[in-house]
Amino acid sequence: MRKNICIIGPLGAGKSTCISLLSTDNYDCISSGKLIRAAGLNVADGNLINDKIVLSLIYTEMKKSTKSIIHDGFPRTAEQGVEFIKSGERINSMIYLNLPYKTLLTRVKNRLVCSNPLCQATYNRNTAILDNGIYYCRHCHSILTVRIDDNPYAIRKRYDIFQKNLDGIIEFCHTYDIPFIEIDAQKSTEDICKEIMSHLK
Fold this sequence. Notes:
Blueprint: E1 4-8, H1 15-19, E2 27-31, H2 32-38, H3 51-62, E3 68-72, H4 78-86, E4 93-98, H5 101-109, E5 111-114, E6 122-124, E7 129-131, E8 134-136, E9 144-145, H6 152-175, E10 180-184, H7 189-198
Helix pairs in contact: 3-4, 4-6
């Protein structure tokens, strides 16, 4: 039975950046956020998308792979986790990237994302390629933009919603005997990835 490794954390914790470096011969990566944005669902207000819609998107994507899966930002609620287990899947580890609000706010203010729905690579303004006043993606050369949900109102709301649901996810892990691993997301991306990799073995 394939493994499911779930990596959760508030916006700006570096989930997508780390996960993009973790795809291996044994693991594929699925980002619930990317699936939601690619589907054109409204996320500008910072509210969570309906659980059934999120699960449907994830199940559809999982059918495309025979490998074990690293999930980016899933489950976002305990209810999503329970339904995932009830569907016959299992979660081998829940990895929580912990980041203080002040730090994530600084990160998100400098965040850019590829405008290509099939790419959606994430960048920082300080390291992105700037050409004639326009930022471009290193992978597909599309223009980089600010995510629609990276506005001050949505940032605060998404953080508060994540924190509100975190206790439920921890309890869900205890109930289903899922290892819950907390990692300090203020570390370097390299150190975070190394720590995550140690739990994929």
